[in-house]
Amino acid sequence: MNCEEIKQKVGIRTVLESFNLFPVKENRKTAFYFALDREEKIPSLSVDFVKNKAFDFGTGKSYDVISIVQQMNKCSVSDALKYLSTFDFSSRNEFFDKEVKAQSDYKILEIKEIEHYTLIQYLKSRKVFEQKHLVKEIHYELNEKKYFGIGFQNNSGSFEIRNPYSKICLGKKDIIFIQNEQNPNNEIVIFERFFDYLTFRNLENSPHSTCDFLILNSTAMLFKAEEKLREYDKISLFLDNDDNGKSIKTKIQSQYQNVADCSLIYHGFKDLNEWFCKR
Prior knowledge:
Blueprint: H1 3-9, H2 12-18, E1 25-26, E2 30-33, E3 45-48, E4 53-56, E5 62-63, H3 65-73, H4 77-84, H5 92-101, E6 106-112, H6 117-125, E7 136-142, E8 145-153, E9 159-163, E10 166-170, E11 176-178, E12 187-191, H7 194-204, E13 212-215, H8 226-229, E14 234-238, H9 243-255, E15 259-261, H10 272-277
Parallel strand pairs: 12-13, 12-14, 14-15
Antiparallel strand pairs: 1-2, 2-3, 3-4, 4-5, 6-7, 7-8, 8-9, 9-10, 11-13
């Protein structure tokens, strides 16, 4: 498959998400992301989902899916094509349409306790079934089709949805802040995704926690919690063991006191849940 075919068949949102990059602001057709090549507090990367291109207002650079991979992986065009060739083209268009329209064209049909066999088995496969009371079964309509998944509500009232086949956010992307009445050490524990939070609660093996929790849902969302984190005497990090997770860890360690890097517990694994599943 040549460059032009790749540019047509691979959605730019999917490529950005593969690097754990998510929009800070968005509407149905466009979005703003943080820059690919620097840290910033105000997002400057404008992404057009219809044209499948991005423009960085800070540097004047334009990007397509290939140049994004080149920028993120510091690689040649050939290596970028190899990276993109691993994407599932058979479902790419449907997935792309679903992601673009998820902000405005969805309808939540039902919210209930986890009952569906597929979702129960999925939670069991991730070894967090014991925490099913912390999540919901969400049935929703998207692009005139009906779906269901495991949902966790974020601070904007939107839902992070997961099932064995997809990962989307219905509504506005945001952090999840969980505050506990009893927090004697004034500690907050930070995760990238809610499955790591559920894993931690399993390891905790207690119905009551003695610390607060922050689930970023995207490392790009850290800016929403930066002021809040200054209130804590201790910050414990359970971030991914990848370049993005390490970058955020370094940023937090440089800005706050008494930061504990707990990723050493699952050294050699991508994240806490992957480590827990393979024990």
